[in-house]
Design goal:
single chain; eight-stranded mixed β-sheet; seven-stranded antiparallel β-sheet; 12 helices; elongated; disordered N terminus
Length: about 575
Amino acid sequence: MHPQLLSCPLPKPFLQLNDRPKHLLYQQRSSCLSSRTYKGPISAEKQGWDLGRFLKTLYFFNEPPSPAKILEFIIEKLSGPSPKESAKKMETSGFILVVGATGGVGRRVVNNLMKKGLPVRALVRNEEKARRMLGPDIELIVGDITKESTLAPEYFKGVRKVINAASVIIGPKEGDTPDRAKYSQSFVCLMKQIKGASPEMVEFIGMKILINAVKESVGLRSGKLLFGFEDQSSKEHSWGALDDVVMGGVSESTFQIDRTGGESGKPTGLFKGIVSTANNGGFTSIRTKNFSKPEDLSAYDGLELRLKGDGRRYKLIVRTSTDWDTVGYTASFDTIGGQWQSIRLPFSSLRPVFRARTISDAPPFDPSNVVSLQLMFSKFEYDGKLNPTFVEGPFELPVSSVRAYIKDPITPRFVHVSSAGVTRPDRPGIDLSKQPPAVRLNKELGFVLTFKLKGEDLIRESGIPYTIVRPCALTEEPAGADLVFDQGDNITGKISREEIARICIAALESPYACDKTFEVKSVVPFSEPFTVDPENPPPEKDYDIYFKTLKDGITGKESLEQSAIAV
C-alpha cells in the first residue's frame, strides 16, 4: 500500500457515527489525499482489508448494521445475488391540465385536445357541471384557484403542461340565461358587472396559487438544483464514501466543500481520493444518503453536471430505490483536463446497472422517484469492459452543481389566456373614447385589466416556460378567418374563441411561442359576421408562421416604463 494510505487515514468527521452532515460538508481539504503529494505507482499486491472502514461505510448509509445483516451482505457478495428493485412502472406521458375548463375558451381547448387523443385533465369548481359539459371520460380535478387548500401540489402529479383559461366572470347586471347567452352580446356601458370572486382574487391571487400548485410538475426553464451553489441559493446533501472496501479493496475517497475552489472563487464540491487495484479493487465513489423526500424530476429531460475535468471518465449513478445494494441507473461521461464544463446526461442514456453488469430486465428509469446520487471513478465500465482513462493514484474532481434540465428547444409549459388592453388603463396620453369598454370601465369593473396584468407578471417571473395570449374581443364565430398577431398591446378587434383554443394548443409545441406575449385578432371587422361552409371548412392553420414573427420582451409595459422615466 502507498505510504499515504497507511500514515494518513481519512479525516474522522467524514464517516462520523453521530451522523452530523455539517462536519462532513465543511471539513478542510485533506492534505493526505492531495495529488500534489503523491509520488510513484500504487502496488496492486494483496494488502490488508480494513474491516473497520467497511463497517463505517455500512453504518453511514444504513445506520448500525446487525451481525445478521453483515453476514447476509457477505453471502450475497460472494454468490452474486439478483438486485432488489421495485417493479414500479414509469409514467410514459404527462397530462395537459386545462384550468377554467367549463368556460367559453376552456371547454373548446378540452374538446380539441381530446379529438387529438392527447391526455388531458380539467380543473373545475363544479363536478356536475363539468360532467354535463365535457362528458364522462375526462379526468377531473375539483378545486378553486382562489382557495389554496383545494389545490394541493400532489393533485397535479403527472401534469406536464397547463393551459389556463380561467378568468373573472363578467355578466349582465340583470342576470343571464343558463347558457350565458347575454354574455356573448356586445359590451354595453355599465350594464355588466363582476360575478363571483373579485378580479384581484381570480386574476392575481388565484394566479399565484395556481403557479405554486403546478410549478413542481411542469418544471422551470433554469432546471431544478439537486446539489450545488448559485448566486441566490444553494443545496447540499450528506455525502459518504462508498469505495472498493465493500469488496475487499483499499481505495479511499472523500467529498468536501471548498468554499473558494469553484469558478470565480465561488464554492464547489470536491470529490477526491486515491484509487488502487490492490485486492482486486479499483473504484472509489461518493454517494448521498437517501433523500428525506424523493425528488420528482419527471418534468425534466436529464441531469447536468457543472465540473472541472481532469481528462478521465467518471460515472453518475442515480437510484430510485431506498435499498442500499440495488440497481443504479448509470451513465459514463468523459471530462476535459483543467477545464470547467457542463455535461448533460439525458435520462434516456441511463442504463440499469448492478455491480458493473447491465440488468436487461430492470424496470425503466423512473424520474419521479429519485432517492440518491452517486459519483464514481472506476477501473470498470460495464459488462466486462474497462475504463480506457483509468489510472491508479490520486484524483480530484470539483463539482459545483448537479441539476435537472429541460432539453432544447424549450417549449411552453404554461399557456395563459389573458386579454388585449391590459396595459392601457394607466397609459398616459391614450384616448379612452377609442378604446374597448373594458379599458374605459377598468375601475368600475374592479380594476380587472390591472389585475390581469399583475397576473401576467407572476407568470413571467415564475421561471416556468410560458406563452401569454391576449385575445381581442371574443366571439362565438367559427375559427378560420385570417389573423393579425401583434405585440405592444395596441390593437383592437375581435377573434373567435375556437381560434384562441387552437392557438393555445399549438403554442404548447412551438419553441417560437416560448416566453412570448402577444395580442391577436381576426382581419374581419366587428360590423361583418364571419361564417364558414360546414361542408368545406378552411384548413387548420400553421400557427408557427405567426409565432415566428414574435419577439422577446415585448409586453406593452414598455410605454408605461418610458412614461415613468420621462416624468
